[in-house]
Fold this sequence. Notes:
By secondary structure, the protein is an alpha+beta fold. It has helices at residues 13-24, 26-46, 53-78, 148-161, 170-182, 190-201, 259-276, 309-316, 321-339, 370-379, 391-394, 400-416, 437-446, 458-470, 472-478, and strands at residues 5-9, 81-85, 88-90, 104-106, 110-116, 128-133, 138-142, 166-167, 215-216, 221-230, 233-240, 244-252, 287-293, 296-302, 307-308, 355-357, 363-365.
Amino acid sequence: MAELELSIRYQTTPARVGSMVMAALLPVWGLIIPFCLGLFLALIIQAPGDLPPVIASLVLSALILIPVLAVVVTAFFEDDRLLVSKEGLAFPLRMLSQLGFRRERLWSDLTAVSLKWGGTATFEPDDALVLHFRSDGSARLPLTAVPKADLEQLLLAIDVWGTGAKRAAELSDLHNVLLSENKGIEHLSYTQMWEEELSRRFSATNFVPLEPGRVLQNGRLKIVRQLAFGGLSAIYLAQRDGRDLVVLKEAVVPPSADEHSREKAAELFAREAQFLAKLNHPQIARVEDHFVEGGRNYLLLEYLPGQDLRQLVKQNGRQSEETVLIWANQVCEILQYLHGQEPPIIHRDLTPDNLVLREDGSVILIDFGAANEFVGTATGTLVGKQAYIAPEQFKGKAITQSDFYALGGTLHFLLTGDDPEALSVSHPREHRQELSLAVDDLVARLTSMDADGRPPSAQAIRQILARLMSEPAQLIEQTQ
C-alpha cells in the first residue's frame, strides 16, 4: 500500500438536525427563491424605472444571498467526515471554531489525547475523545458521534502515527473493548479475557504470538497489534519503515515435526508465496514479500482498510438477497482470476473473515491459505475453518470446486447471520423463510457434498448470478 487514508464518519445530533432542517427547507431555497429571483429580474428588465434603485438592489441581493447561504449551511452540516492519513488529520467544517479555524493538523502538532469514558461498550452522551494540539485549539469528538468500527480505526491511527503525543492509559482499554465487540466477542469480564488470552498464548504447542512493539527485519517492520491468532499461526497489523501499514501472516513449524516434513512445508510456503506475489488484481490484497526469521515463516500482505463481512453481519445483521448477490458476483470474479492462473490457484480459506467491504462497495480478498497449508503439511493436520471446508479438502485433495463450497457457506452466513453446518448441504431458507427458492437452490448447489454437483467454474456461477440479479420480481414470486 503506497499510502493509507481513512475516512472516519462523524455526525453529532445538532448536525443531523441541521441537515434535516435544510433538507426540509430545500423547496424554499432551492426552488421558490430562485423562481422569485427570475421573476424579479424579468420585472426589472421590463420596467427598469418602476422600483427605486436602492430597494431593487436590496431585494436582488437577498434573493441571491439566501440560496448561496443555504448551500453553504447545508455543506457545513453535511460535512461528516474526519479524514486521516499518515501526514495528519482534516476535520469537518463545523469543528473549525474548536480548532482556531485551522481545519488540517499534522501529527507532529498533536501533543496529547485524553478520554472521558465510563468503561463500557455502551457510550454515554458525555463520553468523548479529545485531541489536544500544540497550536491553538483542540478537537472534542463525542464517542456517540462516531461508529464503533470507525472509532477503532481512529484509535489505531493514533497508535501508529500519533506516537509523539501523550496518550491516556484508558485508550488501550477502549481499543480492546471496540476490537472485542467488532469481532463479535460480547460481555467478557476481564478475568475471562485474561484466561482466554493466556490459554491461547501458552498452549501445548508453546507458540507465543509476537507482542505489539516487536520489530523484525532489523527494525524495518514493527508489530502494531495482533489481528488474530490460534494454533500455529497468527496475523498482525504491522508498520513498515515507520510509515505504511501492512498485514503480516506468521506460521510456525512445531519442534515435534520431523525434518522431512519441515523441509517440505518450508518449500511449499516459499513456492506458494512467490507465486502469490505475481498476482495482480484490484480486488486481491497483494502479497508483497515472504521471509524467515527466528524460525518462523512470514507472508507480508497489503493492508486494505475496511470492514470484513463477518464484522459487518455481526453489527448490522443478515443482509438482503440483492446485496449478497452483488457481493457473490464480485467474489466469483476474484475466483475466476485465481482459477485462471497456470496452474490454478485454489484459495482454500474463503470465509467472511477474509473478505473486506470497502467504502466504494467493492469486496476485497485479503488473505490466502498459504500459511495454513504450510502448517498443515508440517503437522499432518488440517488447518482452517471447518464450517467452510469442502469434503474433498478434508481429505487433503482440494480442487477449484472446493472454493465454491466455501463460497456457498459464506453466502449462507451473509443471508442468515449464522455459520453453516460443517460437511453438509446448506439451505439458508430453512433459517430465513422469506428467502427465494432460487437463491436457496444456488447455495445448496454450491455446498453439494459431491464436487461434481457444484457448478463447474466461477464463470458458470456468474451466469447464474446474472440471471438472478436481472429477475428480482421472479425471486419475490418464488418465495411465495
